[in-house]
Structure formats: structure tokens, C-alpha cells
Design goal:
Length: 75
């Protein structure tokens, strides 16, 4: 592989991992912060909010695994 291709692969893996972080923040950290601050915008614990958390965390896991797989192509 050329050096340019390696760097592009690393850039893609980093972008996927940043998207993973954004999903974790949007799906888990933001609602938890709102609940702990007793914000009016805090979600209630319902089936819908629980499903949303599961979907966000699943998306995060998929993105992280894609990033790992992308980096695995460098070996």
C-alpha cells in the first residue's frame, strides 16, 4: 500500500471513531446529564426513550467496529 492510501485509511477510521463518540454523547451522555441536572428537557423513562438509547448505542458500536475493521486493513 502506498503512504497516501494508508493515511486516507487512517483518516476514514478516525472519522468513524469520531462519529462513534458523537453517537454515545447524543444517545447516552446528553440524556443522563439532563436527568441529573433535573432539566425540563430531560427525557422520561419510557419505552421510547429506552429504545432511543439502545438505537444510539447500537449505531455507536457499529461505527466503532467499522473503524476497527478499517484500521485492520492496514496490516
Amino acid at each position: 500500500m502506498s503512504l497516501i492510501r494508508n493515511e486516507r485509511t487512517k483518516l476514514l477510521a478516525n472519522a468513524l471513531d469520531r462519529a462513534f463518540t458523537a453517537c454515545v454523547v447524543a444517545g447516552l451522555i446528553a440524556p443522563a446529564s439532563a436527568i441529573s441536572a433535573r432539566s425540563n428537557a430531560a427525557p422520561d423513562f419510557s419505552f421510547g426513550s429506552s429504545l432511543g438509547i439502545v438505537i444510539w448505542l447500537s449505531a455507536a458500536l457499529i461505527l466503532h467496529m467499522l473503524a476497527r475493521r478499517t484500521l485492520g486493513a492496514l496490516t
